[in-house]
Amino acid sequence: MPAIYTLRALEQFTCTGAECPLSCCTRGWSIQVDAATLAKWRSLPEPDVRERLLDSAISTHDKGKQFFVLKHAGDGRCVHLTEAGLCGVQARFGHESIPATCQEYPRATFQPESLQLKTAFLSCPELVRLVLQDSGHDPFVVAEDGLSDADRSERARLGDSVNAIVNRLLSMREAALNLRVYALATVVAELDAYLGRAGGNLSGAVTLIEKAFEGAGARVSRLQQLQRKGKYKHNKALAGCFWRLTYAIAHRGPGSDLVPEIPGLSALCAGAVESDADERQRDIKVYRTVVRQYQAVSAQTRTALDTLLEQYLRVKFVNHGFPYALHQDDHVATFLDCVVPYVLLQVLLGWQAVEQGGDGLADVALTIAKVETVLGIHNAKVFPQIEKHPELRPLEQSLGSLVELC
After folding, report:
1. Which of these three, 73, 89, 107, is where a domain ends?
2. How many Å is the Cα radius of gyration of the chain?
3. Is the dihedral of CA 186, 187, 192, 195 positive or negative?
4. Alpha carbon distance 179, 103 (integer Å)
5. CA 134: distance to chain centroid?
């Protein structure tokens, strides 16, 4: 059984520094200056240099605890960033003299209950480029722990079972990626319904997922047939509501200017409505606009996007806790947390491809990094919207339009 997941791209990653099109030193992030770094700065022999560094560490408090964060200029740039686009502290004193967060980013290590993740944040365009470059291969190296099923907790075994069907469905490349994602959504919905009825009987949930694994091929084939015959029925208003909220999440708050506006869709999503009936009609228009725009994308570009976004999703699922480190022990919310940026990227990248002509996929890694930046570490903007709009939880309906976007 898996014990350690290590992202392959980390073996090749090197910070591009001043050449980075989305420098982490310019985004206004709150970077903590750890105690070890402060101690190094305090030990510097030159008084003026020492004071300048210490003055750049702003004291703040949270829940009664004091900590220090790096100062930024008015435009969000770190005060230590030179005109050449490089870190002045690193250039003068070495890599070990910058804050631990700066040393490690985009690398990240997480320790859920049943495994260790050595991965990286997808808000770094160079890291994303390396991940996409390896499309078609498992993005993680997986080490085994040698434990038998009997030695693992029920929760860990359920995670293993869900992870197995995630990998199986995503690997069925004879079907469009949207169909594979939707098939996975139906499995997650069935699991959520079972757990709601069973009151936490995880052993029964493992059995359910194992049966779904055995029938994965038939599930995808059935959806393919419905899609080809145009017989798949879903709630267009609810699907439009999902797209509208997804689009709005990325266009509100700090950093939202990083994500391109799509003409027509922006106006629809931002428009005010006076009644529930008006909102329903608005969401149907959003749904139809998304479908129309995606159908304008060439088949060749859709195939290329499927390959790249499949790789993105594989890393996204692992990074964001699906299925081993669920948000509030909630499979549906954690799944949506990963799918929201996926569908947003699908619309944005498809639109960019049409606008740019040709394959239009030159800036995929940068677009992914921008969306990840705007949504925040661990999609800080997504979970509040899921909680605010419980109508999105019936995945077969809220994600129903994925069957049409193939």
Report:
1. 107
2. 23
3. positive
4. 40
5. 18
Count CB neighbours of 135 within 10 A: 16
- Read off the pTM: 0.92
Residue where a domain terminates, one of 59, 85, 107? 107
Phi, psi dihedrals of residue 144, rounded to the nearest 5°: -95, 150
Strand arrangement, sheet containing 140-144: 107-110, 116-120, 2-7, 140-144
Count Cβ neighbours within 10 Å for each residue of 56-91 and write b for 16 or more, e otherwise. Answer: bbeeeeeeeeeebbbebeeeeebebbeeeeebbbbe
Q: Which domain holds residue 33?
A: 2-107
Q: Which parts of 327-381 fold into alpha helices (H)?
A: 331-356, 364-375
Taking only the tens place, the pLDDT of each residue in 179-221 is: 999 999 999 999 999 999 987 778 899 999 999 999 999 999 9
110 three-state secondary structure: strand
∠ CA 116-117-121, rounded to 5°: 160
- Flag whether 250 is in a domain: yes
Cis upstream peptide for 323 (omega within 30°): yes
First to last CA, the chain: 34
Amino acid at 242: F
